[in-house]
Amino acid sequence: MSSDRKLKECISVQKILWWLIFFGSAVNYMLRTNLNIAIVSMVEKRQPKLNNESQVEKCYSENYINSTNTTNSEEILSQDDEIRYNWDEKQQGLILGGFFWLFWATQVPGGILAQRYGTKMVYGLANMFLMLLCLLIPLASSLDYRVVVFLRVLQGISAGASMPSIHRLTANWIPPNERSKFITAYMGTAVGAAVTYPFCGLLISWFGWPSVFYITGAIGVIWFTAWWLLAYDSPAQHPRISKEEKLNIMNKIGDVIAPKTLSTPWKKILLSRPVWINIFAEWGNLWGLYTIMTQAPTYFKLIHGWDIQMTGFLSGIPHLARLIISVLMSIFADYLLNNDSMSRTNVRKMATAACCIGQGLFMLALAFSGCNSTAAIVFSIGATGMSGTVSSGALASFIDMSPNFSSIIVGISNMIGGVSGFLSAYLVGVLTYQNQIVGQWQLVFIISTVFLLVPGILHLFLSSSKLQDWNTPTEQINCHELQKLNPEANRDKVFPQETQNEIKITSKRNETEE
Question: What is the model's pTM?
């Protein structure tokens, strides 16, 4: 056996794709969340207006004992050297929430573009534009906060098209019973967030807040180069995949993946109960995740009085827990499926219950953690960690229901879920405007709890992960008939002639029960 062949067997193309998506998701979240920690040092710190004795003063006095940098709350509020802009809570809310204003608008177009042009182009270029806009934020900040809002809106437009496009690649490359594990690559977002907060906290301490945007942008350039050289949209298009791996993937996937010329059944998708129940569950998950992801740095800084390095560290830990729990749940879910221990629908229900209901209970505990810093840290870790089970829940269910149109369905889901991002940021800005006290943050977390528990409970009773009949044409189309549909377009892009002569594509639908 040649060394090249041994290398191919050791490092499969599927593994390479997993790592590319994992790091791509990490970079995506690094570029979208770096401002969440940087803004803590970008704005002038002001003592909140308080009409009477409040819990915020109590939190500061308690945390002072553990602080190595300050001796009172006023010093905590004024110690940063990088204070530059007089942005109040409402303006900060606009900046943080601006990313989500049109984030929803490009979700469905991103899915459609991925079907037509492939994940390689859509996902790669979307991340590249996100990176370029990141590099402009320091300049925009020196001009006006509204310029920063504008850039954040553009970032949201670019990022909105990225995540739905990945599902098309997953459907093309990954067999049904292996998807939970592969979709953990999406949880690179958790690593991106987990690393970004402490990493950017150190950058701010060492070089000042502008370095956050320049260095994370440079990391994005490195990832884009690797993606463009190594990623391909299907086994048939990959020039270096081994024949054994290609045949193995195509045999396992079967013929549920139709050609790009298949028309989208919009009416059936939009009237599908399973689609909407999963979308509603994802809405709840995203509301809870975006609330903690976006607001944690501000919460730990202003309510618990931590310095910028500790704030970054405490804001990042929960996302590392999210990755770990995602991997553990995916292993368990795929084990249940491969051993026929539980139906596909029930596996997805179990994971989604952990995601929404589990996350909701931790969020409720966070709401009543008060000035107990240790409890706040533990409960924020628990809430964010439980959201990681979405990779085996709603996200996997979208592909189970319709491999052909999963990118579009995820686009619809993210379009609706993305609204929660700016609504949550706006709500926090309104509730905490000149009123940074524990009671107001308690309201923030209680509202998040409601948005998590309600869809989680409904999902248990009403969801389904069966392959939907509208996923494929009424009559199954075999490989030869696919060639007839469009010989020039499909000869190499659907199944190459070489593969047609060697394998027989058989129908392998998901064998699930309600």
Answer: 0.66
